[in-house]
Amino acid sequence: MKNSGKPSSKKPKIIPRAAHTVSRNDISGSALKVLYRLHKSGYQAFLVGGCVRDALLGLHPKDFDIATNATPEEVRSLFSNCRLIGRRFRLAHIRFGREIIETATFRAAAIHKDDDVAHDDEGRILRDNVYGTIDEDVWRRDFTCNALYYNIADFSIWDFTDGVKDIERRRLVLIGDPVQRLREDPVRMLRAVRFAAKLDFTIDDSVVAAMHKNVGLLTNVPAARLFDEFMKLFQSGHAEKTFDLLREHGLFAEMFPATDQELNEDDTFVEFVKAALQNSDRRVAAGKSVTPMFLLGVFLWAPIKRIAAIRRSEEKMSEAQSLSLAAYEISSEQQRRIAIPRRFTVPMREMLALQPRFQTMRGRRAMNLLEHRRFRAAYDFMMLLSDVGKVDEEIADFWTEAQTLSVDDRAERFQIDAKPRARRRRRRRRRPSKSGSRA
């Protein structure tokens, strides 16, 4: 699929190197290797998408996607470190250590009955492996700001859709008919919110109108894919603004229906969720780790508390037991919308079930809570509840101080008499066995 010299049906605006701010210093060395090898082998090779957009905005691109007229098989023949993935779209992943450079072949619209393409009843694309040229590929992109091509041949930028102008206006505009584009891939609604929050862009009115008409299409998206989108939405440092935009456009209710119902009925729960999101954003900004387990627990806390109270009214059980049972029920129900891996749901349930134990501040069992493997997450969760008045400040201060004490001082703090326990242990060791020998 080498350069054919076929003229483009749509001529791009070509911005020469001297007229834009994208530099090779902004580009990963691995991505440059792929671009140069494709170019030297006679193929077209362009950086495309968010990396070009972010470079123009003066941000530091992290992910580098490449578009080319080489087929996936031709790309694989050039790189021994390449593997082909994907059913919906066939892609080449070229690995350099931990870094993966994703390389896609230019795509075109399906116009023949034997083209490798499939849609569901709502119009969502299930499979799309129709290859084309760059001027056809651009119309398959989602937003104009993501449809800019950086040409490694002369370091120019090719702009087919006035994407540079929309970046200057800080506006998110869908390429083509907004309703059709959202029907093809409803996840584009979530992407619009994510980009608006991350880049401080305004979503174009035509896109907003199409989103409000098609929010229900998110239920057609595979639950596993929605979990991937959840991670991108809430783990990148713009969680609070993302949350506000999702609720504004009715998208959060499609992802977390039980949570949205509680948010509409309880302002304190809204305050709690917002406090957690702000905390998450601060951690990301400080370079600290964040886990989806914690935020999922925050989102599901009010629905879980409601179900736990019902279970306790139905049969006798402790608050911790009812929370654990309710957490299992609610997380199982939530899986229908977002496929949350077990490695997150299990620790989330443990974290929530520990909350009642913070009410007890005396005795050995209370002191042992400090050694529980989920203590730190449960403590952080409790502190957020304290911030919104759901846990007494006295309790929050007690557990904050308890962590700073030595082992000996903890016994005094928790009012534990260690000596009688030690004497009982010695008496048990001296007690003779039934055979007459020492146990």
Structure description:
36% of the residues are buried. α6 crosses α8, α13 packs antiparallel against α14 and α15 packs antiparallel against α16. An eight-stranded mixed β-sheet has the order 1-10-9-2-3-6-5-4. The chain has a two-stranded antiparallel sheet with strand order 7-8. It starts with 12 loop residues before the first strand and ends in a 9-residue tail after the last helix. It contains 21 helices and twelve strands. It has 439 residues and is an alpha+beta fold. The chain is elongated, with a radius of gyration of 28 Å. The protein is 50% helix and 11% strand. The protein folds into three domains: 169 residues, Beta Polymerase, domain 2, CATH 3.30.460; 132 residues, cca-adding enzyme, domain 2 (Orthogonal Bundle); 73 residues, no CATH class. The N terminus and C terminus are likely disordered.
Give the helix/strand layout:
Layout: E1 13-15, H1 29-40, E2 45-48, H2 50-56, E3 65-68, H3 72-78, E4 82-85, E5 91-96, E6 99-105, E7 117-119, E8 125-128, H4 134-137, E9 148-151, E10 156-159, H5 163-169, E11 171-172, H6 178-184, H7 187-199, E12 202-203, H8 205-214, H9 223-234, H10 239-248, H11 252-255, H12 257-265, H13 267-285, H14 292-314, H15 319-334, H16 342-353, H17 364-368, H18 375-387, H19 393-402, H20 407-413, H21 418-430
Parallel strand pairs: 3-6, 11-12
Antiparallel strand pairs: 1-10, 2-3, 2-9, 4-5, 5-6, 7-8, 9-10
